[in-house]
Amino acid sequence: MKFPSEPFKIKVVEPIRRTTREERDTRLRIAGYNLFQVPAESVYVDLLTDSGTAAMSDRQWAGLMLGDESYAGSRNYYHLEETVRSIFGYKHVIPTHQGRMAENLLFSTIVKPGMCVPNNIHFDTTRANVEHQGAEALDVVVREAYDPRCDLPFKGNIDLPRLEETINRAGPDKIPLVMMTITNNSGGGQPVSMDNIRRTRGLLDHYHIPLFFDACRFAENCFFIKEREPEYAHTSILDIARELFSYGDGCTMSAKKDGLVNIGGFLSLNDGQWAQDITNMLILVEGFPTYGGLAGRDLEAMARGLEEVLDEEYLRFRIGQVRYLGELLEGGGVPILKPVGGHAVYLNAKEFLPHIPQSEFPGQALAVALYRDFGIRGVEIGTLMFGKKDPVTGGTIHPELEMVRLAVPRRVYTNMQITYVAESIIELYRRRELIHGLALIHEAPMLRHFTARFEELQGSPSLEPMTV
Questions:
Q1: What is the pTM for the complete model shown?
Q2: Average pLDDT for residues 8-33, to the nearest whole number?
Q3: Which one of 26, 89, 208, 320 counts the least CB within 10 Å of its CB?
Q4: E strand or H helix at 266
């Protein structure tokens, strides 16, 4: 079926307030042209992130009523522990309030200054947590990942020769672990093949280096394996997941993605000493080991969400809806990163706005224009998020990809709303030459995209008032 139909019914609705272009323009000026600073009530379709924005099922909402809020030994923790072990297979399950805390606990425990942590591509919080420990966060994804037009089915794969070269350069004792992000968010939501995972495991065994997964979109990655690796065509998503994680030594998880919850995460691993050290830190900064900064009801919703996300009918719709958006945009001539990933469509801002140099933040300029004209909020993944200062010249080292991510929340928007997004972007593309660049006037030392402020290099384009 070309048009993906929803495998669910809607039983609760949330009104969306319509705004005018003038109101949105005012909001942008107050926010310093940073969409993270725009109130959600002023957004019509919010594609800023798929993290924590999912609609929970009736079964998950029912689970909230079974929350055991005991300080220690909550029954909901044991349900979560059983569920995580069943899917991921690791011995130790450490709950956290979200994925970046799992990253912080892991890296602050085992990563030391001067070390190197390779990944296919680190996402923002992962990179920040590694670098905060004084270590190098190194991307070793296949080169095809940086070509937006390349239609390789597994553009999230690790480049194994580059990984081995990195190990030999840094020394195995300086690499505490290798991370693999599934799917690879910074590279367009692209999956990693089972074959690449298996061969990465084989290489790391030779050097006695652990392999950890950033597993926040693991179910979507497993669906792509089933769809694109013929030997898994008749294998269940659960069995694919179990094999995938069997090649690792542990994982970090933001359950706000493929856990289908609004808050929650965990760290799961096999090494008993690491688990003990991490748990000691958890008690200091998050809470007791059986609640990890969460209420019992949140642990229960997370356990149930991890079970639901493995449903193949859900995944077929989920990835089909994102793919549908990509196909509509491609049909309208809009440059996007190909192939369409699992959780988002990525607009290629370099091609969309060729008249704006990377020094003027074309990705951010595009995201601003999309919100101002149509009330749609996306997020820049380019120079603002991943640009670095050159230690020699003091200038900016621009990333190879300059994109705007349109992350689709799970089970939230109808296909009619997705169609509205596509038609809006196609209309914006037709008058793209009216979009101006931005100048950065404030930035934080780390994760600057959350709080940065800008000025437009020229006044906003004079267009007809628009209400959405």
A1: 0.92
A2: 94
A3: 208
A4: strand 265-269
